[in-house]
Write a structure and sequence with these properties.
It is a single chain. This protein is an alpha/beta fold. About 40% of the residues lie in helices and about 15% in strands. It contains 14 helices and 13 strands. The strands form 2 sheets. An 8-stranded mixed β-sheet has the order 3-2-1-4-5-6-7-13. The chain has a 5-stranded parallel β-sheet with strand order 9-8-10-11-12, with helices on both faces. Strand 4, helix 3 and strand 5 (about 110-115) form a beta-alpha-beta unit. It is globular, with a radius of gyration of 21 Å. It starts with a strand and ends in a 7-residue tail after the last helix.
């Protein structure tokens, strides 16, 4: 597949556009990048193509029209040059994702990496996960998280619109079950490349350094982390702790490269920060529920982080006080990164996606009924009845 021409395009989320392009190029593919919206966390990234508004241009100056025509022109200029169009996030070149349909009619491969709230509707998703998978992102009395999940109708419309149109247009979808609220057909499990941070497993520090770096304290379970850390301090356990917020990714990686333990977020699996921790050979507290996807990911060393400060404290005590146990987990983390999230692992996985043999997870057999049951308003139920398939490909 080294002769494939790939355009990686979309919104820069977790440095995916930049990293995907770089890794595909290194494998010998002819890959280029196009960014619709840059990320503030990666200000120095340079892309092959971009749709940049003039400095200071705002909506009242016609920003939306500028971006619309910029996307149309970019699509017309690039649609014939590439064999595979890899989208990151939900943005597309044309309204109603017609670009995806046109590309498929031209014989192109369209792959969409959904990244979170572009397709997720939290009030429904959290109910499905709690009731059917015994998976909790927050405690029953967590008012802050309950308020966050009580999102307005616009979030429902966005997630439903993007998921349905991507499927209707025949795109190959790569996602997490925990964000694919309105999934109606199989999707590939979301794996991504994480560049190396250390070449070999590191020796643990005599006094372990614990890092937690929330971009959103509510979603990342920071309350439970701080409560568990305070319990460690009260018990006189010797460790160092750093809470990192509003810092560049370069600073974060520099600190992670010196850490022993990283606490990421509650949930079924880890994301970008968790992969960075594994690449640095850190013990990772995050998600390790491979059963949630219907397949078993063997030998994952990640420690499941549940929204329970006392349980987190008990897990941390073992890792912090037992040096040999901690060292073994650090070695296992680095080996797991190399096997599943290194550049080479991603290329193998991407090629499997292209030929249709990569790991996939199905919608639930009763998915439509669950959406109707957990919908929050009459108009949400109406949209589901009218536009969500009756025969789900489970």
């Amino acid at each position: 597949m080294s002769n494939m021409r790939v355009l990686v395009c979309g919104v820069e989320i977790a440095n995916n556009i930049f990293t995907f392009t770089d890794v595909l190029r290194k494998s010998g593919m002819d890959a280029e990048s196009l960014c619709f919206i840059k990320s503030v966390y990666y200000p120095d990234n340079i892309y092959d193509h971009g749709i940049w508004a003039p400095p200071g241009m705002q909506r009242k100056h016609g920003l939306d029209f500028f971006l619309f025509f910029g996307k149309v022109i970019a699509f017309m200029r690039l649609c014939a040059r590439f064999d595979v169009f890899l989208y990151v996030w939900s943005h597309s070149f044309l309204p109603f994702k017609l670009d995806m349909l046109l590309l498929r009619l031209l014989g192109k491969r369209v792959i969409v990496f959904n990244c979170g709230d572009d397709v997720r509707y939290r009030p429904i998703q959290s109910r499905i996960d709690r009731e059917h998978f015994n998976l909790r992102y927050y405690a029953d009395n967590d008012s802050a998280y309950l308020k966050k999940h009580d999102a307005g109708g616009n979030w429902f419309i966005r997630g439903f619109y993007h998921q349905r149109l991507e499927e209707i247009m025949g795109a190959t979808i790569v996602s997490f079950r925990s964000q694919a609220t309105f999934q109606s057909r199989p999707a590939y499990f979301y794996r991504f490349p994480q560049p190396a941070i250390c070449s070999e497993p590191r020796r643990t520090n005599d006094i372990p350094l614990i890092i937690h770096a929330p971009t959103d304290r509510v979603a990342k379970g920071t309350y439970y982390v701080l409560e568990a850390i305070e319990q460690l301090r009260v018990q006189g356990v010797e460790f160092e702790f750093e809470l990192i917020e509003n810092q560049s990714n370069d600073y974060l990686l520099e600190r992670v490269s010196k850490a022993d333990i990283v606490i990421d977020q509650p949930g079924p699996w880890f994301g970008k920060f968790g992969a960075e921790a594994l690449a640095a050979g850190c013990v990772l507290f995050s998600g390790n529920r491979a059963d949630y996807y219907g397949f078993m990911d063997e030998n994952s060393p990640v420690i499941q982080f549940n929204p329970d400060a006392s349980a987190l404290y008990e897990q941390l005590v073992k890792v912090v006080t037992d040096v040999q146990f901690r060292q073994g987990l650090m070695i296992a983390s680095h080996e797991y990164w190399k096997k599943r999230y290194s550049d080479e692992a991603f290329i193998r996985y991407f090629e499997k996606i292209c030929i249709g043999t990569a790991e996939r997870f199905n919608p639930l057999h009763q998915h439509r009924e669950l959406l109707l049951e957990y919908a929050r308003t009459w108009w949400q139920r109406l949209l589901i009845r009218c536009f969500y398939p009756r025969n789900v490909n489970a």
